[in-house]
Amino acid sequence: MRLVLLGPPGAGKGTLANNLKDALRILHISTGDILREEMKNNTNLGKEAKQYLDKGELVPDEVVTRLIENKLSRDSIIEKGFMLDGFPRTETQAKDLDRILNKFKKPLNYVLYMESTLPVIIQRLTGRRVCRNCGALFHIINLPPKKEGVCDACSGELYQRSDDNEQTIKTRMKVYLKNTRPIIEYYQKQGKLKKLDADRDSQEVQLILMKLFNEDENFHQH
Ligand code: AMP
């Protein structure tokens, strides 16, 4: 199955992807995670990306699209199935993704649109903590680790993303509304969009989604 998770920052795309990974047995690809890894390793790409990430702005289309094209072209990922989280973020990226997949005659099956409201988004992002070692996600109120500052899964150090502050969150929301929201219509026209109320708790969102999938007569063919 080939999926895209679409929605504002803080809608819970990463959390849903983590929960779905086992249920659907497909690879989770997050452009944000890839870029942060490049930044951690101080590569040329990482250095270039940092200027945009720190401000909450988008990395240029050509850079992220090349990244995704390289990733998808390896290890039969397109045939095996994948879940894209954070890509596409512009209409140009959406069209390029279609072009890449059409070359393999393997179009997207679904685009999950996670709809969330601003107060929920701000509460989620300002309280989010990420494991520096394994990338596991926590929240100081909604999903606190057993020991403060320490990852439950691998005992790695938890940190707050530099772009998870109120000022940068506002920029990210503006960027989302201007560049990313319009692609909802693009996918709606393709008949691929499934809308989810992502203000709900992550377990509920997953249950609703699995119900939607099971009611879809095409789901079991993917
Ligand atoms: P995320 O982890 O998805 O919230 O992404 C963090 C940041 O990475 C974004 O604010 C952008 O600066 C950059 N980024 C991630 N995905 C993309 C993309 N598809 N296009 C452009 N920039 C991206």
Q: Could you please describe the fold and organization of this structure?
A:
The protein is of the alpha/beta class. It has two domains: 2-117 and 166-221, Rossmann fold, CATH 3.40.50; 128-163, no CATH class. The protein is 49% helix and 15% strand. The chain has helices spanning 13-25, 31-40, 44-53, 61-72, 77-80, 91-103, 118-127, 166-180, 182-189, 202-215, and strands spanning 2-6, 27-30, 82-85, 110-115, 128-131, 137-139, 158-159, 193-197. Strands 2-3-1-4-8 form a five-stranded parallel sheet. The longest helix is centred in the last third of the chain and has 15 residues, at 166-180. The radius of gyration is 17 Å and the shape is globular. The structure holds adenosine monophosphate. Residues 9, 31-32, 35, 52-53, 56-59, 64, 86-89, 93, 163, 172 line the site of adenosine monophosphate.
The overall strand count is 8
Taken together, the total number of domains comes to: 2
What is the ordering of alpha helices and beta strands?
EHEHHHHEHEHEEEHHEH
Main sheet: which strands, in order across? 2-3-1-4-8
Please give the oligomerization state of what you see. single chain
Name of the top-level CATH class of the largest domain: Alpha Beta
Secondary-structure-based class equals alpha/beta
Mean pLDDT: 94
> How large is the share of residues in beta strands?
5-15%
Number of helices, counting only DSSP H or I runs of 4 residues or more: 10
Shape: globular
Helix content: 40-55%
CATH fourth-tier homologous superfamily of the largest domain: P-loop containing nucleotide triphosphate hydrolases
* Ligands and ions found: adenosine monophosphate
Radius of gyration: 17 Å
CATH topology of the largest domain: Rossmann fold
